[in-house]
Amino acid sequence: MSYQVLNYHRFLFQWHCRNFFRFRRYLSGAEKDYLETCFALAQGFEEVSESGYSHFSYYSYSHRVDGELVNSSRLAYGSVCHPGPAWQAARPVLAERSLTLPDFFVNNPVSNFYGLGWDLLERQFKVYFRVTQLTQLPAEVATLIGPRRLEDHREEGLVSYTYVDNQLSETKVYLYPRLSVELPEGVRGEAYMMTDRRGTVPQYDVASSASWIDKINPAGQGIVRLYQELDETLDTIAYTDPDHYTLYFP
């Protein structure tokens, strides 16, 4: 464990509580314990999967912008390198919510626990798994991929379940293209989030915050500039238009 990384995660959490949303007021004791476990498990600011892929972010704070309305109550934490201990810390959280997850994701060796997420204003709770062989997905989840060819994407991807008031609300699969494609200006990579409620939602890994600052409205620009005080830059954006998007940091 790196105490520098541990202390940074504690600082970052408190910084978000001061500047964006008071997470501690809404999280249970088990959820706070889970986050503390994830802070301690972190080996660095970036973790690499067994395949060498380095674009799985094991933590994220995000902000959904809808015109002048901003939802900054969104965070997610987990572990790429230590899924076992993170899963053990997550189990009390799942138990207090009386959630039972599909056996495939809990017991199949191609599935690794990835993390938990929250959108507290929307009462959403999310569970993520990293699947190393997407070809083995159970049929009820694989159907979300539709006509896309798995061979054009990385073998590993993410699956998540979203619960609202502890009732399943949405299932998502995240695919990561393997082949080089023409990307929009200011984008260095992309992923596809396929859901049973919203269809396919592209997510862009941004080249730099500066490349997007003029494409988003003042509400988002203010968020980006606040992160600049920490020398943190925009990592990913799910973009519809200048007034509708989600920013992911750091």
Rg, alpha carbons: 17 Å
Q: Could you say which structural class the secondary elements and strand pairing correspond to?
A: alpha+beta
Tally of individual helices:
6
Low-confidence stretches: none
Helical amount: 25-40%
Shape: globular
Largest sheet: 10 strands, antiparallel, barrel
Strand order of the largest sheet: 1-2-3-4-5-6-7-8-9-10
Cα separation of the termini: 20 Å
Along the chain, the helix and strand elements come as HHEEHHEEHEEEEHEE
Residues in β-strands, percent:
25-35%
- Could you give the count of β-strands? 10
Short description:
By secondary structure, this protein is α+β, with helices and mostly antiparallel strands. The protein is 26% helix and 32% strand.
What does this structure look like?
- The chain is an alpha+beta fold and about 250 residues long.
- It has 6 helices and 10 strands.
- It has helices at about 5-20, 30-40, 85-95, 105, 140, 220-230, and strands spanning about 60-65, 70-80, 110-120, 125-130, 155-165, 165-175, 185-195, 200-205, 235-240, 245-250.
- It has a 10-stranded antiparallel β-barrel with strand order 1-2-3-4-5-6-7-8-9-10.
- β7 and β8 form a beta hairpin.
- The longest helix has 17 residues, at about 5-20.
- The two termini are about 20 Å apart.
